[in-house]
Amino acid sequence: PKSITGNAPHIVITAGPTREALDPVRYLSNHSSGKMGYALAAEAAALGARVSLISGPVNLATPHGVERIDVETAMQMHQAALRLAPQAALFIGCAAVADYRADSAAEHKIKKTDDSDTLTLTLVKNPDIIAEVAALPANQRPVVVGFAAETQDLAGYAQDKLQRKGLDMIVANDVSQQGLGFGSDENAALLFWRVTSGTEQLAAPPQPKTQLAALIIRQALTLLPTQSSG
Ligand code: C5P
């Protein structure tokens, strides 16, 4: 049977978009559906792992056996991720984290004014959650898997992200392809992971996200240090 033998690893997964408040009624966000991250969580739990799913606002049911931590903002996701990651064996950053947030959310609804046709918002950078997890000290650092959604030079940008963020593996998908990626039930991906002599890769053809999730989890688990029992 396909299951994880021995000690069940703790896997932490981020999923979905984040929502950055501009004022009490408005926010900045993106089109992430959370489907890929939820499929990863479902697959990992089905294999017997202990799964913590840190989720932005999505319309999806919590997969069976998964502990779900709901967050809205990148700062909340950052806090939850850095609380859970040091005890985890594997961290998968699948969330579409907003790169920027309002420098300060307005306390009251921003009003339209008659004297100007433009409105200027000042945004500040959010922390790079996955890069911080990857930079944890060795005794607290899980194996780290990231995602890269690109519209051009998939392999180049993905390998650059793998190095720059200090990841162990990256799953790159071409979001310019119709019917794949954002919001869709299908996805294709290029996987790159580090080996001592450089990187290895695998091209996964278009397939249901549930099936791709199984392939990603399987590959990620091969990167975990083998645990000796006793
Ligand atoms: O740099 P980019 O946003 O394309 O990187 C995508 C990867 O980094 C994903 O794994 C995503 O979850 C993660 N990420 C993050 N925190 C951010 C931005 C991206 O964890 N602030």
Helix content estimate = 10-25%
β-strand amount? 25-35%
What is the overall pLDDT average?
93
| Order of H and E elements | EEEHEEHEEEHEHEEEH
Give the count of structural domains: 1
CATH architectural category:
3-Layer(aba) Sandwich
Q: Could you state the CATH homologous superfamily?
A: CoaB-like
Which fold does the CATH topology refer to? Rossmann fold
Poorly predicted segments: none
Structural description of this entry:
This protein is α/β, with parallel strands linked by helices and 230 residues long. The chain has one domain (10-99, 122-221): CoaB-like (Rossmann fold), CATH 3.40.50.10300. It is 23% helix and 30% strand. It has five helices and twelve strands. It has helices at residues 35-46, 74-84, 129-134, 154-164, 209-221; strands at residues 10-15, 20-23, 26-28, 50-55, 66-70, 90-93, 100-102, 123-125, 143-150, 169-174, 186-195, 198-208. The protein has an eight-stranded mixed β-sheet, with helices on both faces. A two-stranded antiparallel ribbon has the order 2-3. The longest helix is centred in the last third of the chain and has 13 residues, at 209-221. The chain binds cytidine-5'-monophosphate (C5P). Cytidine-5'-monophosphate binds at residues 14, 74, 93-95, 97, 126, 128-130, 146-148, 161. Residues 14, 74, 93-95, 97, 126, 128-130, 146-148, 161 line the site of cytidine-5'-monophosphate (C5P).
